[in-house]
Amino acid sequence: MTTTLAVAAAAALALSACGSSSDDTAGSGSSSSSSATSAKALKVGMAFDVGGRGDGTFNDLAVKGLDKAKTEFGATTEELSPKEDGSDRADLLRQLADDGYNPIVGVGFSYGEAMDTVAKEYPDLQFVRIDGDPSQVPNVAVQSFAEQEGSYLVGAAAALKSKSNHIGFIGGNESALITKFYAGYVQGAKAVKNDIKVDDKRLATGDDGAGFGNIDGAKVAAQAMYGNGADIIYTAAGGSFNGSFPVAASTGNLAIGVDSDQYETVGDPKLQKIILTSMIKRVDNAVYLSIKSFKDTGKASGTAYGLKDEGVGYSTSGGKVDDIKSKLDDYRQQIIDGKIKVSETVS
Q: Please, are residues 91 and 33 in contact by the beta-carbon 8 Å criterion?
């Protein structure tokens, strides 16, 4: 079973899959927001983060929301993926804009500067960015999440389950966003055991997105952490979990997933056995609700999702946290009630 986290009850309708490229030939669709008022004319463009469709975490959650909008609204969709170094993000956004897509969704905080630049060039189009700081550009709506709150819960789970009093964290890079995951994880773990040891390894420097597809780097990091005594590792690095999860399986240790319920998505029984829990982040609902808002009103607005509106949380699939669920839910309620304040950084 999984803790199902719905941002809005209205969002719970049927899903269907769509292809990884344009489902219809891009026409000369209107680039004005008025085109969104007609479901038949709705054309939604999506530019992925590094890894694209099939990464098993962040991008695939965005696809889920896009697919839902396609099914429910009859939208034409187009999906584009950046180069491994992400250097063509602005080009992808311009391509979608020139092909008549509106709204245009950029998946990941790394689209920040590129999207702001391109949005100014196309002021009549609506741009939506998933993750990152708010934008000052009027036609850019940013959907953000309190990752530190969900990470607090999986950190508490790790501390409650650790036998060595030593756990680890592998992050995609050193960005403020990934630091929120780490900070919440540490705070949750130390709320349970103040003397617990938490290793921290980032797979890329600064805001470099290369760490979200660095399977070899995650493998090496996991081998080092497990070898030095950690028995549970939380990987917040996109598709890089394909490096750390197998190491957990081969060494008889545990892992924590991110974004999606990775127990349900890894597809390998050997890996399912080592997943303690996952920090759920409802990117799918953020994408869907942004598109719905654009269809209904001609614009999308920035929204911040946290535990209180079930935008983040933890999964229970596999049953490994069943015996501590009451403790985790107590922490969850204390955060919602404001009794526990989870910082975005660790001092």
A: no
- For tokens 């002021």, what's the residue? 123
pLDDT of residue 103: 98
102 forms beta bridges with 43
For 123-144, what is each residue's pLDDT tens digit?
Answer: 999 999 999 999 999 999 999 9
The tokens for 56 are 């098993």
Please tell me whether the peptide bond between 138 and the residue prior to it is cis, using omega within 30 degrees of 0: no
Q: Are the C-beta atoms of residues 177 and 111 closer than 8 Å to each other? A: no
- Angle, nearest 10°, between helix axes 241-251 and 215-227? 30
Report pTM: 0.83
Mean pLDDT check: name the lowest of 49-58, 99-108, 121-130. 49-58
Cβ–Cβ under 8 Å, residues 241 and 56: yes
Tell me the residue type at 289.
L
Residues 6+ positions from 20 with CB-CB distance below 8 Å? 52, 53, 54, 79
Domains, the chain, in order of start with CATH, read 9-145+283-309 (3.40.50.2300), 148-281+316-336 (3.40.50.2300)
- The DSSP-derived string for 191-238 is HH-TT-EEEEEESSSTT-GGGGG-HHHHHHHHHHHHHTT--EEEEESG
Phi, psi of 162 (to 5 degrees): -65, 135
pLDDT-derived band at 196, boundaries 50, 70, 90:
very high
Q: Taking 90 as the threshold, does the pLDDT of residue 65 lie above it?
A: yes
Q: Using 50, 70 and 90 to split pLDDT, how confident is the model at 51?
A: confident
Distance between CA atoms of 122 and 139, rounded to whole angstroms?
9
Determine the Cα–Cα distance for residues 280 and 321; give it in Å rounded to an integer.
14
pLDDT tens readout for residues 209-224:
889 989 999 999 999 9
The SS3 of residue 250 is helix
Which contacts of 95-98 are long-range, i.e. CB under 8 A and separated by 24 or more positions? Answer: 96/45, 96/47, 97/31, 97/45, 97/121, 97/122, 97/125
Helix, strand, coil proportions of the chain in percent (round to 5)?
45, 20, 40
